[in-house]
Write a structure and sequence with these properties.
With about 400 residues, the protein is mainly α. Helix content is about 50%, strand content about 10%. The longest helix has 21 residues, at about 260-280.
Length: about 400
């Protein structure tokens, strides 16, 4: 019988508890020596008392294998767009956690992972620091997966518990994660789209002038467009061919600008004429030729930005720009929230509050102005002590 603690020769910070008992051998990995020694002492105690059986045990899955199983189950309950974001965030952690058995992921492993994700910076713009919000999203996904492993009885506890304590306090603000186009950039972008990509221009203009999410614009149908009232009815989203409800699960009405109304009116007429010439029914969707996958981003969106002299930003930036322009024009948070389809004005304020024009400086400057005279001043002047009042007061005091 033997229970030994050994440091891993190839990976620093990894400790192995090796058990050799009655011809059977078992190994457990830990990320700190203190925990490994404590586990080794407990195993040795139970072996002496005959309380620990070393029969065949099911193999503990690696984080990568368990994540594949978790994603397969999540496909039935998550929106395609949300699932794509999960996969994107997991690309940051799988190189570190993927090969490890779930039982080898300790609290220190998660702390080290936070540092690794932070040091890697932004995947979209190399060299740009990652925001605290992005790190929190990445680690929340890890925590959800490990929490499911706890429910399945694979691991005893979730090492990602109390996630907030694991995040460093000094990180870039989440405001840096919200980018918008300037007035000049947006005008240049739309001009290039209209000139060089006329078939895609109505789609791009809809994203810019209505603030729709990409999937909402792809799923827009002509029965949802009221040209006379200048309204769009947003009641579906399409992602990778899968139709679902909008992100917050609610239908909403979005006002259209005159430019967007005229553009969609022309598009509808052109589609009707083209369908009549081909002897086909007019399309139900407004933008049947605009794909909602990487093809549109690669061959339409990216060239538009390049020809406009702009660095790459996601199409979702048009939605952020739309919100910023409404706030710049001092529209109410309630109206902006309704247009964007957020679940509450408070959420809109959290995301776009830093874009609201600040007018507090005028109030601060007013503190230096001299105080205005009170309304009671004329009365005080009327009650000044005149000779007659003085004489009356003296006579009254003698009585």
């Amino acid at each position: 019988m033997g229970v030994h603690v050994r440091a891993d020769k190839h990976k620093a910070g990894l400790w192995w508890v090796r058990v050799n008992h009655q011809g059977q051998r078992k190994s457990l990995a830990f990320h700190d020596k203190v925990t490994a020694k404590r586990v080794a002492q407990e195993i040795e105690r139970k072996l002496k008392l005959g309380e620990l059986g070393l029969g065949p045990e099911p193999a503990v899955p690696t984080f990568a294998a368990y994540t594949d199983k978790w994603i397969a189950q999540a496909e039935a309950r998550m929106r395609p767009g949300s699932l794509d974001q999960v996969r994107t965030h997991l690309k940051r952690v799988l190189p570190v956690l993927g090969p490890l058995p779930l039982t080898a992921i300790m609290r220190q492993t998660i702390r080290d992972l936070v540092g690794t994700v932070q040091a890697a910076g932004s995947r979209r713009t190399k060299g740009k620091p990652i925001t605290r919000r992005t790190v929190h999203r990445v680690m929340t996904i890890v925590s959800v997966i490990l929490g499911q492993a706890v429910e399945d009885g694979v691991i005893p506890s979730n090492p990602c518990a109390r996630l907030g304590k694991l995040l460093p306090p000094t990180m870039p603000d989440a405001e840096a994660d919200i980018e918008v186009f300037t007035h000049r950039d947006l005008a240049s972008l739309l001009a290039v789209a209209e000139r060089d990509f006329p078939e895609a221009f109505p789609f791009v203009l809809t994203l810019a002038r209505a603030g729709l999410r990409l999937g909402e614009a792809v799923g827009l149908e002509w029965r949802d467009v009221d040209l006379s009232r200048r309204e769009l009815l947003i009641r579906r989203s399409v992602r990778k061919g899968r139709v679902s409800v909008p992100k917050n699960g609610k239908t909403r009405r979005v006002d259209m600008s005159p430019q967007l109304t005229a553009c969609l009116s022309s598009l509808k007429s052109l589609q009707a004429v083209d369908a009549a010439v081909k002897g086909q029914p007019a399309p139900e969707r407004c933008f049947p030729g605009q794909a909602d996958d990487d093809h549109w981003r690669t061959y339409v969106w990216t060239p538009i930005l390049s020809r406009a002299g702009l660095r790459y930003r996601k199409p979702h930036t048009l939605r952020h720009t739309y919100a910023s322009l409404l706030l710049e024009r001092r529209e109410s948070l309630h109206y902006v929230q309704q247009q964007l389809g957020h679940h509450s004005p408070a959420f809109t304020l959290t995301v776009y509050g830093h874009l609201i024009p600040r007018e507090g400086r005028r109030a601060v400057d007013a503190l230096d102005l001299p105080p205005e005279p009170h309304e009671s001043a004329p009365r005080a002047q009327a009650n000044e002590l005149t000779p007659q009042l003085a004489e009356d007061a003296i006579s009254h005091s003698r009585l």
